[in-house]
Records
---
Amino acid sequence: MANAKDLRGDETILKIENVHMYFGRVAALAGVDLEVKKGEIHSIIGPNGAGKTVMMNCINGLYKPQRGKITYKGEDITSRRPHERAYLGISRTFQKIELFGGMTVLDNIRLGRHIHLKSGIVSGSIYAGKTKQEELESRKFIEEEIIDLLEIESIRDHTVHMLPYGLQKRVELGRALALNPDLLLLDEPLAGLNLEEVEDMARFILDINEEERWKVTCILVEHDMGVVMDISHRVFVLNFGNKIMDGTPNEVQTNPEVIKAYLGEEDLYATRR
Amino acid sequence: MSGSPIEMTKDLTIPKLFLSQCKRYGNTKVAMREKEFGIWRPYTWQDYYDNVKSLCLGMVALGLKKGDKVAMIGDNRPEGLWTEMAAICAGGIGVWLFQDCMMDEVKYIIDHSDAKFFVGETQEEVDKALAIKNDCPKLEKIIWDDPKGMRNYQQDFLISLKKVQEVGQWMDKKEPGLFENLINQGHGDDICLLFYTSGTTALPKGALLSHWNMLTMGKNLMAVDPCYDTDDFVSYLPFAWIGEQMMSISCGLQVGYTLNFPEEPTTAKEDIRQIGPHVMFAPPRLYEGMTRQVQVKYIDSSWIKRKIYEFSTKAGYKVADLKFKKKPVPLAWRILHWLAYLLMQKKLKDHLGMSRLRHAYTGGAAMGPDHFRFFHALGVNLKQIYGQTEIAGISIVHRDGDVKFDTVGTPIPETEIRITEEGEILSKSPSVFQGYYKNEEATKKTLVDGWLYSGDRGFIDEDGHLVVFDRSKDVMTLRDGRPFSPQYLETRLKFSPFIQEAWVIGDKRPYIAAVMCVDYAVVGKWADERKINYTSYQELSQKPEVYDLVQKQIEESNKDLPEPARIQRFVNLYKVFDADDEELTRTSKLRRAFVENRYKDIVSGLYSEADVVHMDTTITYEDGREQRIKMDLRVRNVHL
């Protein structure tokens, strides 16, 4: 895979300052700082229990940190609720798939689009004028941008729980994209996928990040070091709630402290496929 | 054919016909539809014209000259057809490649055909072209269609189809009338297509076909089974297959029916059902797939549905057999048949996309009589087509009401058939090809005094129907000295839904043996239901229960065969034959000489006392990785 193209600007899209998150007396995050530039793929790596998912949950509002400040596009969002953050353009996928199993692929993706629909129950039942136009635009967006991008034409009417795991992961990404986000949080999008599915998914992430149409900033939590080092612009290393370093993939791979914390004494490349 | 019949002269070319049809229908009729983003999108004849014109002029501006080859690869979609038509309009020659061609094949064909332009659909095809570009010095431009993933490709010989069309529009403004001029320069004897035959033995050979070849073939087929411009046809089989060219170009253009392109190969089945085509031409494996699908669904369905199915097929078979024998159908059976239609056939045909089907053709390989009867019992007018790429695809076809499931029918108009003393089938018609490209020797062997030597063995039966026995070199001799067709035995075996591929051996040997490939999906499901554990195809194929199952299928097919022609020993292979491993041709025909050499250990095991064959082999994956396989295959005897 070619190394990620550098499309980043100087603009900061997300800033986390001194964030603390405790569960009882356990410090999941002990004063973490992170700055994400617009247009980059910023990966968060670290051993199990390092606090990666907690960080994701803080960013998208599922958890409210006890201390610290989170700024998104210059606005303090620390006390904003999750759905308000979604309105602002923050979308995510989950480590364990959180789709509606009994609904079709198309319905799941449409649901992600819901916050952009303005029409109410009454106008929706008439289907005319503005509502019709809105519906057509939404359909066009889902079909032409998402289903085509993720190559899931053949399963659009299938019920989600009948699908193989790899495809469910793809559908979840589709739903996250339906929000038309500016910032996408990807929580282990490659876990449990086979080699071919990993390659596909990595390509989709690159497409979403680089393609003129999308240009989505991504925060990626992932254990597959091969992919992380190949596609990330910056890598943030977390251990026991503390930042170890934040740098380019090259800097991270050669940092002795990272190697020690993350992999014991072993070679970082041991987990490369 | 509807409207005014087209006058077929030597001066007529495909582009000239294209032009007159575009003028005739203009914006009033849909020429093609493509399902895109979940919706069927129509293109009128005017759109067809505009697109072909801009593409043609664009390619001319980029340096395409008369006689230059344009290689094309990609799924069936309007852009593919436009490119082909544009290349032919410019006086160029179209060369189609199968989508799943491996790098070596692509390289061979591009190099051998002297292709100047390469038109690929997506990044994948572009990557193939880039990999071989240095080895094919005559290749000048690589044209791509789908922008997905192409953002990082900067080479200056790469150009998008859209850009080519823009150049074409600019060219049209500069030199109005150029497009029509180019078309008018063509003559019926010019070459329009170069087809690489799959070749069961040697390297592919390039058959040259002229406009006259293609047009007369279409005309003569349409004379037998007329189509109408209100018909629908679904184009989903590779353009690199002559049968698809026959329906989409020759017949499609002459009749003016609507071509429909599925969204993706994976959605083709559902898309066909939505369209409900009036005419269909597919190789046997597609019909075999449908039969298997029905048989498997039958096993899965509820008791009442199974009973209805059993009753309906019984009535269907009875009536079909009477029709095959050309006997009248008694009133009682007619009523039962009507009931069967209402209860089952109507619904099943709808699911298979066959409810509006008037003619279904199969060709390109042998089809088992069981499959044939199956479709006729369902009320589908399935007919055999016989022909080669070298005769533009067709010389023989069944006539309505005169279908015999062990023959291929009678010659189409303007076609003569002769059988040599050795039993080889020869044919002669205006559609016989112009020779092999850069292969004088092969041309001389195949084309003698205008007669096409097919290499197939056959005879003409008492009703004047041609019976194709097998490829001459494949015909085998039983131990009692009688000739026999291995292909016949194989198609019989493949009627079982559990068997995907079979290879029958036994030429001048004491008995007949077979190498079987089970169907992974069907047998896998069967094993799941019986709580038989397996992790891979390899393991599943070697389960004793699966051997029992396969043995049962062989015994079933052995019934009513003369004793020397029965299969006595078999092995379940650890994989399915695959075109990527060169075991099959791209049109799914078994390459016997190749497999015989590759699996010689298995063959010697089948003709020894051994119960087990030791295999030690290396397999190559599509991405070039290799894996060594060491395993033991059981050999099983069949009770006669």
---
Amino acid sequence: MNLMPSNGLLLEITYLIATALFILSLMWMSSPKTARHGVWAGELGMLLAVGGTLLDRGILDYKWIAIALVLGTIIGVPLGRVHMTAVPQRTALSHAFGALCVTLVGTSEFYLRSPDIPPFVMAVLGLEVILGSLTFTGSLMASGKLQEILPQRPITYKGQNVVNLGVLAIAVGLAIFLVIHPDRTHLFPLIVGIPLLFGVLMIIPIGGADMPTVISLLNSYAGLSAAAMGFVLNSKLLIVAGALDGASGFILSVNMSKAMNRSFSNVLFGAFGQEQAAVAGGAEARSVRSATAEEAAAILAAANKVVIVPGYGMAVAQAQHKVRELYDALTKRGVDVKFGIHPVAGRMPGHMNVLLAEADIPYDKLLDMDEINGEFPQTDVALVIGANDVTNPAARSDHASPIYGMPILDVDKARTVMVIKRSMSPGFAGIDNPLYYLDKTLMLFGDAKSFVNAIVRELHGDGQS
Amino acid sequence: MKMDLITSLYVFMLAGFIGFEVIRRVSPLLHTPLMSLTNALDAIAVVGAILLVGAHKSRLSTILGTIAIVAATSNVVGGFMITDRMLKMFKSSRPQKP
């Protein structure tokens, strides 16, 4: 099929402008000040490209296109209005939709063009459908786990990686065979079907805490499959959009794997969630100091500088709005309050920032790990809410710790550390946190939302007297 | 065909480098909206699906292409909507210059 259309030049120029707008769109995402311009540029580019395509003379029948566009919009609107805590599963679902589109178009292209497909086209077509279909089921699985439709507990068994890689290798092998013998069309369903299976197998061993890496990786795959589709259709616009998406997902995956101290190859081959081997040793009863909301409020009110470290536990407890009230109450008293955010806090990259921004906390108070770590030594109180492993000083000092080497937020360098936690149970990795036994640490036992609320009430009560 | 291929590879390579440089500069604050935005842009694949359905080459391609348009359109609409919703929430504590 020739997608260089008949009224070619004008449409090609439209695509060229759309491509430029897409790049500008991502450039404007560099700062929250200009980011909304980025969305508008993207929308304009999309409008031009789709509008120009619809006017193409090669289109003979609009009926199905119109129906599909309307249906897509009907599905898209609710997906654009989900709650902010549901953004990770929505994002995973949209990766699945993107990959579905790419896979279906690739499949049609194969059957329209076979049996005489040039080797290079067949190779990228193979890449397109393999990446597309494994991203489709993988993303559906990830979305299901995040939405808690599927069990979140990682399922692992011996030789899992060998089985998974073997399955993928069969699909790749068949695709290579099809490159050499493009007339064996009966093999094509296998290079769609086997990666569909691989996508499921890939996500089975993944637990919730690994989700930021997985979503980023699937994002990258979705982009690369779209770029491959661009090669097949000879569409430069699609190649650029796919390459941008692929690069974005890749960078985020590398960030996430660094933040979790996993090697990138470990992530690339889907070997997530492997090191949960019980490290229950050292759980002998050591004493901790605990405090009440009243005491916590008094210490916070006396501080000059407070850094709040939120983790996914805060979002689970829906405590972000109460945390905003705490931020307001302390700021009103002249306390300098900032937030220290670990790259893997939340269920996808940047998730915690969105949740706090939704609670109306100004973004210039949200600092990432590298920015905030230098400030802990001058911090009077570090308040940890629903975060655990990302504050574990064992990652810095204890060579035997499974998270040794993972970059952490240096909350233990603050003068006083307060940790809001339900109980002394360890975090997802099952690792004990020496932070809790420090002399400067106060444990605030309770539900994040009600405890923060109690502190806020203490602060207000004090102020009114 | 050979030239097309080489040109495409150049485009892919250059776009990859631009992607790395541009995305590296995106503030970690905005990584979630970044992902939903790139996802919406990626749904430009809808263009391929539209041409496929429009050309009406075979029943299979029309059916698969129609589903593909539905899937990609939902990403375009939902992706831009949620990205804008998220970005609207990011406010500075310093008063904005008018």
